[in-house]
Design brief:
DUF6056, mainly alpha, transmembrane helix, DUF6056 family protein, transmembrane
């Protein structure tokens, strides 16, 4: 689409008229689409730069969450990035999806570097500060990332102000973020696309606010807890391993085990539900409650409450687990906030047919929020049980390599 439009189509190699047309008729992501339009015409260069971005993602995650420069944490970070599910990038293609999701997420992490330096009482380097602002412009042009960045900036700035820190040097970042969000809100193209997607998804116009809330809640919950993903499953495994010796209260320990136990049961049962009658009766009946419009929730039928009720229990279990497993309660709150942002980034799918039409790739923010929380827990694990971390690495690295090979061989080169 981008290649055809700019290389001899009606715009005759004129980039800015094309971007203006897109802004007025389809999307507010003018900064991102400027890059994508260039990238599709220079595919080899995109491959090189995308490799640098993925390397940069590993680097910045280790800057934030691997102060001791642990080789184990580094290896798990690499595995987490290369084991990213290929379904995130197979829908419209690698160039479009990395440009619209992976790059904004990576640049958002770099954009927070001055905030990190301020929180850790380091001197803010002027060069890295300028680069962080440039990264922020790209990141905030993606509306989901931009909203998450805005919320996290508010929380960090508020925390610094409460603790008597001067935050004036961080205000340009906040202003840039707000300006890019206004670009999104004021874009005529977003309204045009909304109507087009509404026509493709006519059922959406017939559901009310409460149903939209349920759609967002259930779709986010099933992606986080019930759809198999090795990194999410590893997060639950690490929670169990940490809880074994960090949580003494049996009730709290069992609550922390809940995400692992429940997700593992559904992972196994869902793989065999077509070949075992008893599995069909139990698990299949649960999964058929999920539709393209959330669950079959009915106030008058209490059985239909089960999926949403289970997801609510698992969310509470995750929050309780993180609170009790991370010793520094400020970091525990941060882990919970990051988890909430990942969940809500998927949750907002329910409020726009445009985002809903984007499909599975919008889950990428949720995925990397899980990666961040996993790295925070591994830091706790490394402090108390380095041998246990070695065992996790010995499992994860081969598994990650195998998954990456599977993804590469499945790619439509």
């Amino acid at each position: 689409m981008f290649l055809k439009a700019i290389s001899g189509g009606e715009f005759k190699n004129r980039l800015f008229p094309y971007l203006a047309y897109r802004y007025n008729n389809w999307s507010s992501r003018v900064v991102i689409e400027m890059w994508i339009t260039f990238a599709v015409q220079h595919f080899v260069l995109w491959k090189i730069l995308n490799s640098f971005v993925m390397t940069g993602l590993v680097y910045i995650l280790n800057v934030y969450f691997n102060k001791k420069r642990s080789i184990n944490v580094l290896l798990i970070t690499i595995v987490s990035v290369i084991a990213m599910p290929n379904r995130f990038v197979f829908e419209p293609g690698w160039v479009a999806d990395t440009g619209n999701y992976l790059w904004p997420i990576t640049f958002a992490l770099f954009a927070f570097f001055p905030f990190y330096q301020k929180l850790t009482k380091q001197k803010i380097n002027p060069y890295s500060y300028v680069l962080s602002l440039l990264a922020l412009i790209f990141a905030s042009n993606q509306e989901q990332v931009g909203i998450c960045v805005f919320a996290l900036m508010i929380l960090i700035i508020g925390y610094l102000v409460v603790n008597g820190e001067k935050v004036w040097i961080l205000m340009p970042s906040w202003i840039i973020n707000i300006c890019l969000l206004l670009v999104t809100v004021l874009s005529p193209g977003n309204k045009v696309r909304y109507n087009i997607e509404l026509h493709r998804f006519p059922e959406y116009g017939q559901i009310g606010l409460l149903k939209k809330l349920e759609v967002g809640f259930s779709s986010s919950g099933i992606e986080l807890f019930l759809n198999f993903n090795i990194i999410v499953w590893l997060l639950f495994v690490v929670m169990v391993l940490l809880a074994r010796y960090k949580i003494k209260d049996r009730m709290l320990k069992m609550i922390t085990y809940m995400p692992f136990i429940t997700s593992s049961i559904f992972y196994v049962f869902s793989m065999h539900r077509d070949s075992h009658g008893w599995t069909d009766n139990i698990v299949n009946n649960f999964f058929i409650q999920f539709t393209s419009l959330g669950t079959k929730l009915s106030i008058s039928n209490t059985i239909t409450w089960a999926p949403d009720f289970l997801i609510l229990i698992l969310i509470i279990s995750l929050v309780v687990g993180l609170w009790n497993l991370i010793d520094d309660k400020r970091k525990a709150i941060f882990a919970i906030v990051i988890s909430a942002m990942g969940f809500l980034s998927k949750f907002v799918m329910a409020f726009s047919p445009t985002v809903w039409a984007s499909g599975i790739r919008v889950d990428m923010i949720l995925y990397f929020s899980v990666v961040i929380v996993l790295l925070m827990l591994l830091k706790e694990y490394e402090t108390d049980n380095k041998k246990g971390l070695d065992l996790i690495v010995n499992f994860m690295v081969p598994a990650g390599i195998i998954i990456n090979i599977i993804y590469i061989t499945a790619m439509p080169w």
